[in-house]
Amino acid sequence: MTPITEVEGRRVALSNLQKVLYPETGFTKGELLHYYATTAGALLPHLRDRAVSFLRYPDGPEGQLFFAKNVPPGTPEWVTTAEVVRSSSEGPARMVVVQDLPSLVWAANLVTEFHTHQWLVRNPDEADRLIFDLDPGAPATVVDCCEVALWLRERLAADGIEAYPKTAGSKGLHLLAAVRGSSSERTSEYAKALAVEAERAMPRLVVHRMTKSLRPGKVFVDWSQNAARKTTATPYTLRARALPMVSAPVTWGEVEECRAPGQLEFLADDVAPRLQDHGDLLAPLLDPGRAGELP
């Protein structure tokens, strides 16, 4: 019998709570649900009003992984959805919008990573986020990503744009900034120009093209996730990796002081103490008054 729990007046069915999802640590589905429920205060504002793509891994990261972009069968009627035009070739789709704790717990029960666009469903023609995904090609590591992130921070600041870092929850680093008054196309063009500029400034360290043969030992500055159809791992989402790693916001001090990859690796159990110490380090992204304008 599937347990039913009540979350803020909504009845949510939970399943397989004892199932081990991360065998290396014994981390269970029940613990995954507990993580999302207790992190909701920080996570929900970064999900709210954004269409969500789910990367599902119901049998753990070593099992089948698949993206779910359309509203899943059996979605409760009280879960908010929105029609989204992802691209001219794909046409419109109806996607989930996680607005509240019951919806978050329901979605977490599907065992998911949360991925969102860089725009709000109420205004899909305007990007409100700029993102760089810094992806190291071995033997480069997140330590090299930190060097690139610091360069990008200063370059963005020169244009009046304030950047905030978070771990990818795997091996890299994400830089995010709040922007206004720009389309996804224009934001992508600007991000690409800065990626090219970073490669010129640090040719031994940076590559801006996705070609895999160019990437060993360098940091790929992926600017393409600013495209309107693309989604990126949401702050605080768990990742489908060998360990229950989190895409966790970090301070610029931590970026500056990073000397080994393990310094910027955070598991689910690390997040509550970090929130207690720092609050949500990405809260400024939610303040429209702090959004920058592209030059």
UniProtKB/TrEMBL annotation:
The answer on whether this UniProt entry bears the keyword Acyltransferase reads: no
Instruction: Cite the CDD domains for this sequence.
Output: MtLigD_Pol_like
MF-aspect GO terms:
ligase activity
Q: Answer yes or no on keyword Ligase.
A: yes
Please report the stretch or stretches of sequence annotated as the DNA ligase D polymerase domain.
28-281
Q: Protein name, please?
A: ATP-dependent DNA ligase
* Any Pfam family matching the protein: LigD_Prim-Pol
Keyword annotations from UniProtKB, A to Z: Ligase
May I ask which residue range the UniProt record assigns to the signal sequence? none
